[in-house]
Structure formats: structure tokens, C-alpha cells
Records
---
Amino acid sequence: MRTVEDPVGLPYTVNPVELVGREVLVEVRQGPPGIVGLQGGPAWPWQWMGDIATFAALQALGLGTAEARRAWRVVAENALYLWTGMEFVRCANAFQRPGHQADPTTLVGEALAGATGSAAAASITGTAPNQTLTITFPRGVTGDVGDPGSAGAIAAAQDVDMTGARQDSVLAWSTSDNKFHPITPPRLAGPWAIAGNQFTGGSNLSQSPKTLATMNIPALPYAWRPIVLTGSIGMQNHVSSVDSGRVNIEVRLGGVDGVLVGYGVSVSLANSGEVIFHPRWEYPVSPSSDLGVVPANTTAALYVIAKRVFGNANYSVQTAAAQLIVMAQPYTP
């Protein structure tokens, strides 16, 4: 007997009967689906044998009871066939359409050192397609101390970068790349000095400002700032009373209106006196400030100037014991 589907849903009044050889086939209307049955026992264990082209090729294998529970996929039908040892069981819906292609995994390797004597280990972390393969290798035991090597050149060391080195460079550590780099030596350079006949004096002078001397300093291979160490010049203010007039001394870089780098204060008395020079800045200065800095490979000139600060009295300048001493401080901001 065999069942047929009822496309209309009405009961059949005629049941076809067909005689085929020694069998009688009776078509009976298919009933509605029944309730879900009890959970069955575990399936037979079977051995997957892979793909085979057609069912005819599978039959041609001549399988017996020894090959029971083997299974193939017949490519021509995209169906699974299980050999029971006596016959094939066909599962037509065992294979559906293939799923979408996933993104390829980008695997990044990472190596770690484990404790000495520990076992090697590997793990994959992260979510596909971005994952990390971490392999832990046991750290080896500490070896014997090797023989001391021969002395090598500092410039050949791995943590030394000699780019831009000069004859007078010194090495300084840089945290930006953890290396030593050549820098300008932080010590003062010089001195440069002028005295006596390098100054221009005079009696009963009225000009203000008046250039008394010019000191020329040759170009240096690095940027620098002038430091007035000391100096002096004879000065007399022609005043009729105390504090009725005064002319002081300025040392300026680059011209009579340049950056003030030195200063000397005279006495507002009719008698002659010695004016002592000392460093002086008009504006705040710090190591990173570029005030009064002379660029590398540039000559510089310092001007010694007499300038009236108040009153209108004339003055006289004596140059016999005059002097100016200057040092160069490297500019390393």
C-alpha cells in the first residue's frame, strides 16, 4: 500500500488499485502529521568516506558487511548514502547550499618568554578575523660569563648616533630615541678682550649715545650668547652739583640699539671715577630663550656706548686702563 497527498482536503471515494506483477498497489489518502514521537536512541556510528561521483560508481564498489556504516556523498545527487552492510540508506536533504564565504583571518604572532624550566604553550585570542597567536617559550638558563671582548670605538656602539658630530662635540643622552647624540660643549668659549687703545675717549664730550669701542668676535660653528665677564673705563661727569647729570656705559650686541648684554654705572660727581662693567639684560632670559643669541657661523660685534641717563652735563672718558672681557656661552635650548 502507498499513500498519496490530498491536494484538496476532501475524503477519497475511490481508491485506485493497480496490479503490478505479483503485487497489488492500493493508493490510500495520506493522513495529517502525527505528534512528535519519543526521543530515539543514538544513531549508529559511521565512517565518512568522502565524495563519489554517481550512485552507479558507489554500487560498483561491491560493498559487503565488512564495510557497514560507511557513508559517501554522491556528488551528482548532492545526497548522502549510508551502507548498512546489506543496502544503502539515502538521505536527500543531508546537504544544503554552501554558506557565505567568511573573511580570512589575519593572525598576528606574539612570542613571550616563560619561566625557566616551564613548558611551551600556545593560545589564540581575539575574535575572527583579527586574532593573535601567542606562543610562550621557556626561558633558558643563564649561561656562563663570556670572555671580555676588546675595547671598541664609542661611535660604533648601538646606542650612539654620531650624526652632526664636530671636533669639539660631546655626547648627551636623548630620551626621544634612547641614544647618545653629539651636542655643543656646554662650557664657555673664549675669552675675547679689548683694552686701552681699542677704546676712543675724549674730554668735555656732549654726544649721547657715543660709541667708545667695538669688539668683533669671529664666527663659531654653533649658536652662542655673549657673556660680559668684566670690564672698566675711566669716566668724569662735569656736574656743578651732586646728581645733576650722569652718563653710564652700555654694552650692546649688533649695534647701538642692539640687545643689551652689559652695563656700567658712573658716579654723578665732578671727580673722575672708574666705571665697572657687569652682565645685564633688559628682558627675562632662560636657557630656552633666544634673546641675544648669535647664529652659528655668523660673526658678531659688541658695542661699548656712553649714554646720558639724566641731566645735560658734558663728560670725559679716560681710556688708559679701559678693558672689556667677553666669553661665549653655547646656546643649547
---
Amino acid sequence: MEIRKLNALRGLAASIVLITHFSDVTGWLDGALGGRAGQYGVMLFFLLSGFLMSHLYFDRKADKENIKRYVISRIARVVPLYVLVVICSYSMHYFGYTGLYEITEVQSLIAHLLFVYGESVLWTIAPEIQFYVIFIGLWKVACWRRGYIYVIVTLVLIILFFSNFPRFYGDFDGVPYNFFHLMRSLPYFLVGVLIGMHYKSANIPLYLRKNIFVFSLILIPLMYPHFSPVSSDAKVRMWLSYEVLFVMAAVFVSVVCFVPDNNRLLSNRAGDFLGKISYSLYLLHMPIIQFINTFEMPIAFKLILFLSSSVCVAYLSFRWIEKPAARLINSFFCSNGKYSA
């Protein structure tokens, strides 16, 4: 059964990233909504990803057929648009045009296609794909001894903390790689997995399922560097601070578990729409900002033009690239053409 609130949460995550980048590039509100605050939107994406993986798959056997369907589903959902963006970025630079992203060398192209490196917002796709591989192991463990998942997550969090998040990056024969991104994002995936494990079985009392919990989302802007009352380095080393992980996980649990499913702020057509196009919004908004910022116009008009253009482009991408590519991949590899979201 679809958890409709998650659509709005995806849309919110994408919106945080868009507004942050717009503020950084144009100086809107003196950059008050920028300063790496978009990372909180990415954290939401990673929590969502881990949550959905365990929620959708831990109740199924980790056999060959189900793993095949899982792999095809993930590839169909993420890879086609990403590969198209990467190839277009390199091709445009190769022919002397301004590319979507700065992928100017063959080595960089290879690194992106191998999911070991990413320019600009593309950095998030590599750890996402890497986590999909890791999840297969977690899935097998969950089918064998589900309780060991808690041990694994706890050990990983402890090891990452005491090793100060190992910085595995460099290049191999000129091909760059950066596994530090996986190290710093893995806690969010894993915490999402734990939450997803218990979503179906959690017996939340009716007196706790209140619309007021939607206001927990206010905690996210309160962590923005320009607004945060926190004086520790958590507001600048956000990925490396478990305090931030705790707050983001608390917000996620509050929204997903405590807010009623029929909450009008989260369960509505606008949220459904933004959630569906959120991946295209995320991948394609940066070139749009750069282009619109070249115009001489009031910044408020730039914001309106940027948001409307981004939504239109993302919808067209979702309608004519994402959906057809996913349908084609699934129909080719799955005999009945069915796949998991």
C-alpha cells in the first residue's frame, strides 16, 4: 500500500535543495537559505531510500528471483535519467558547448558511469547506488536473523564515529573516485532501514497520531547555518555529527509514523505531483539556475521563473524520459512487466 505522505516528503526534500542552491547562486536573501542547507534535503532523500528498501523488501525472501526484480527496479528508477545527464554533460563540453555539469574529461565520464564519483548534485547518486548493493546483504541477513540488523547498524555507526568517517578518495589511473560520500551518508540509509523495518508492525496509539506532529518539520530550517541556535560544529560538519542524524531521524519518524495518513498538508495532489517529479527536479535544476541567473531582472522574478521552469522541465523529464525508460527496462527484463516502486 502506498504511503502517500512520502510523496510530499520527497517533494519537500527536492524543494530544500532547489531553494538552497538558488540562494547560493543568486545571493537571494543574502544567502540566508543557502550555506549548504540543501544537505538536509539530501539527508531526507537518504532516509527515505533506506526506509523504502526495508519496508518493501524485508518481508520477501531474498531469493534469486526477488533480488533480480529488486535490481531491475532500482536500475529502472535511477539509472536512465542519470546516465543521460552524464553523457549529455560530457558530449556538450566535447563539442564546445556549456554542459549541464562539469564533466569535461573521459576519466570523469568513466567515474560517473561507474558510480564512484559525482560532480555537483550528481555526487549523491554514487552512494545511492552503492547502498543498493549493500542492501542486498542486509536483506539476506534480515531473512536469516532479522535481529542481527540492529547489531550491524550499531557496529557501523560506532566504527564510522571512532574512525572519523574514513576518507577514501583519489584516482585510479586518472579515474577519480570518492567513497567518503558513502561513509558519511551510510548512517542515514541505515537509520532509514531501521525505521522501515518497524513501520508495518508499529502499533502507534491513536492518541499519538496527531496532525500537530507535522510541525516537527520546522526543526529542519532551525538547523540551517544562518538560523541555528546550535553553537557546536554540528551546523557546519552536519554529515559528521550524529546530533544532526538524531534530529533528522526524529523529524522523519514524527512525519511518517505519527502524522495521520490523511493529513492535508502532506497527502494532497500537489505533494503527489512534486514527489513524482522530485528526481528530475533534483538532477536538472542546477543548469536552470545558472541559465536564469544570466538575465538582468529582479531577483523575485528570477525565483518565480526558476521554480516554474524547473517544475516544467522536471515534469517533461518524468513524463517522457523517466517513466518510459523505467517501463521499457522492466518490460524487457521482467516477463510480466511488473516491478516494485
---
Amino acid sequence: MAISPEISVAMCTYNGAPFIVEQLESMAAQTLLPAEIVVSDDGSTDGTIALVKQTWERLSEHSSELRTVKLTVISNKTSLGVTKNFEQAIAATTKPYIFLADQDDLWFPQRLEVETAQLKAGAGFVFGDAQLVNSSGEPLGHSLFEALSLSSAERAGIVSHPVDVLIKRNIVTGATAAFSRSVFDKAAPFPSGWVHDEWLAMVAALSGEQFAVTESLIGYRQHDSNQIGVKKNTLSTRMAKLRAEGAERNARLLARITSLSERASELGASASALSLIASSLKLQQARSSYPRYRAIRWVPVLGQVLTGRYFRVSNGPRDILRDLVQPL
């Protein structure tokens, strides 16, 4: 094993005792080790912090390489929530390349080596597929990209025109992500309403960073205590979205695109990106004012369809149907 002086790992924990040992063991088994690991704990009550320290000490006992990896543990007396906790963890890192880590995943041995090579080759943001595993670490039989129904066009588009893809939906999972420090410097402070991974990806896209996509380099664990997680895009999940109350979601999407539009220029967004953001803002403003009664809702929905915004900055027919039938 070799240690890279350029790599920081930012990991957030919260009551992670059931899985944190396996995650740390998989991090210690990397073919390329980080120079530092920053763990930011958001008020665990199950002994997670002590377990992190004890596990890393145990792993380091017989490894001179691991003993040189700096472990920093931050303990929050007041919970920050996932997004702000990750912002705090990243802010405490010091190296040029930052890798995100969840407390409950399993890294494959080459994760740091492969993604570091992509960063050194010029990528400013790297993310990838993942093998979905259950609480015992056993494969579920499908990948993260399959669960997200990631199309070939989206996979190609995120490399060539990332803003065009991300303005419609987030396809980046933070547990697979790595990026250059310049991305974080532009992204901070993280605005409310955004999850850390989707905000960092959008900032990288607007800033003109090159994206790279990898094959599965982690086992992405799915269990009852996941704070985010992913569900396979089946007919039942699609039907559940259609039945879900939509007013709160529309308000959240409007708040997100509003905060993005306020910072887009300072992030160096191109004219085409600014145009997409403006279109998205108009669509979200319209969606937030749709009438509650479905019988008359089709009129303003049709108006937005005719503008082309549903296809340019949203998910086309799927979102049209959702807006027509979803309760508000």
C-alpha cells in the first residue's frame, strides 16, 4: 500500500455502530491510502465515535502505513443534518482531492486509486455506479445506476454537457464521489434545500469542471436506517410518486432553483446554463401555482408543455403526468 499526500476522505456518521467497523476496514484495505480521514459525527448516542477511534487504532497496530494516516474526529453537540454535516467534514479536510464516504458502505480496494487517477487526468468531479448490497453486505442483484434507471444518454451527457443533465434530475450519489478542492471552495456555503452531493455536482457543472464516471467501486448498503438510500425505479415506486402529495415537493424545488439562480453567475455559469436555470425557475414557479383541482389543472400544465420547459429542464412525459394527477 502507498499513501497519497493529495487525498482527504470526508465521512459523516450518525449512530453508525452496526456498520462503521466494516466501512473502516474496507478503507484501510485500499491499494492507495489517503493522507487524512475526517469523521464528523452528528450527535451519535450508540458509541460510534469511540468505535471509530478504537477500530482505526486496531487496524493501525500492525501497519506502519495506516499509522501515518491522520484521523480527525469532530463531534457535534447539536445536530447539523446530513448536508451541513458533510459541509463541516469537507471544510475540515486539507488536501487537494476530497473523497466522500458514508458510514455504512463497503469500499472496493481500488476505489481511491481509480478515482485519483481520474482526478489527476483532469477531471474536477468523479462519481460512479455502485453495487447495491443489503444490511449483511450481500449483493441485491442490481446496481445503483440500474435502480436510478440511468439512461445511456444521461451517462454520456453528464460528461459532455453536465448542466443539461443535472438541471433535470440529480444522478450523482455522494458515496461514490470525489472532487477537487476548488469545487468545494465555490460550493460553500451549501444552501438549504439541497443535498450535499447534488449541490457539489451542480457547482462543478456550472463551473465548467470535467466530469468522469466510473464503474462500481463501492458496495452501497441499503437498510432500514438509511438517511437517503435509493429505491429501484419499479412500477410500484412510480405509482407511489404519482399518489404522493406534491405541494411540499413543488415548494422545495422552487426554493432550490431560486437559490441556484441567485448564485449561478458567481459560479461562472455560461450563458446557456443561465438560460436553462431561468427556464427551470419559470417552470417551478408555474408548478407551485397549479390549481389544486385536477379538472382544471391541465390548462396551466398544457401551457408549460407548449413552452418546451418540461422537456428542456424536467423529465418530460413523466413529470407532465405527475403534475396532472398528483394531489396538491
